[in-house]
Amino acid sequence: MWFESTQVETVRDAFPEWMAFLFAFFSYLGSVWFVAPAVVLAFWFWDRHRFGYWLGVVMGGYAIMVALKSFFSIARPGVGPAITPDSLPTVLALLYAPAVEIHTTTFPSGHALAGTIVWTMLALEVDVGTRVQRLVVAATMIALVSFSRIGAGVHYPIDVVAGVAVAVGYLALVLWLRERITGWPAPWRRSSRASSPTRTLDLRQAATAVFATAGVLSVLALRAGGGTDAAALLGGSIGAVLAWEYARPARQPWSLSLRRVGQAVVGIGTLAVVALVLLVTDAVVVWFLVGVAGGATVVALPRLVSLASISAVRPDVAG
Question: Which Pfam families does the record match to this protein (predicted)?
Fold first, then answer.
């Protein structure tokens, strides 16, 4: 009943073939290729103490997804998209294929889960428009991402419903715990955002706690059979918490200057190059070490850039 391919095929065939490209586009807005850069850039260019917490929340969410997929191990519908990558020119196929050629298990939908987390993060934390406007946009994007996975023929309806439900429950828990443990109000009740030494300390502690929680969830995912993905998440959690404790950057974000944007591009490019190692090996230890390097780099990069800038200025001052 819940896992019938005919349901997926009916939805896919209800739309013209060209919609397959639109489904792929919206799929990307819930994929790791969007989620990871979004939270990393938010951490670098907005309030680092607020978004440092979200780095851990995102890693924890992915760990839950990996654990559940490994536990249930339900095969995908076997329907596929209306347009196959093989029928497209090489360049277009390279962009299109990652959204529709998936080889992991189906339940729950990782795109729906991760998309719910990242779009909720943006709605609650980014000061653009009103809170209601941001929540409407977030809800719309979550719905589009979720439906696109069914329209692309790679998920059952129950997969995306479960993905969103798990994400909402997880978000409610981590935000409630942040409020109860640290005293920092949940975003939907943040009436006084003014920074204070106590609240700054609370946010730092909250980020440490959520990184540690992500690590625990990653261990559970590893025990559930999550393999390399769980190992990378565990490494990322460890690298992030170590950098947060011993190389924590200043709260003040980078400015949107050409120089800072260039540094961000170099940083993400470096992470992408390091991640290429994962394409040629399934060694759990390698994935773990790459995760450690990635988590540490994301958190510590602003601090390292600041130290490099100070070192570059000192000779000029001395001269």
Answer: PAP2 (PF01569)
Task: List C-alpha distances in Å: 239 to 35, 64, 242.
Answer: 19, 19, 5
Tens digit of pLDDT for each residue in 16-29?
999 999 999 999 99
Neighbouring residues of 85: CB distance < 8 A, sequence distance ≥ 6: 93, 96, 97, 100, 101
Q: Is the pLDDT of residue 130 over 90?
A: no
- What is the rounded distance in angstroms from the CA atom of residue 275 to the CA atom of residue 280? 10
Q: Give the C-alpha separation, 41 to 33, whole Å.
A: 13
Give dist(CA 40, CA 281) in Å, integer.
25
pLDDT digits (tens, 9 = 90+) for 180-212: 766 666 665 655 454 444 455 577 788 888 999
Specify whether the CB–CB gap between 212 and 238 falls below 8 A.
no
Distance of alpha carbon 59 from alpha carbon 296, whole angstroms: 13
Q: What is the DSSP track for 100-133?
A: H---S--SS-HHHHHHHHHHHHHHHH--SS-HHH
pTM: 0.89
Check: CB of residue 296 under 8 Å from CB of residue 239. yes
Residue range 249-253: mean pLDDT, rounded: 79
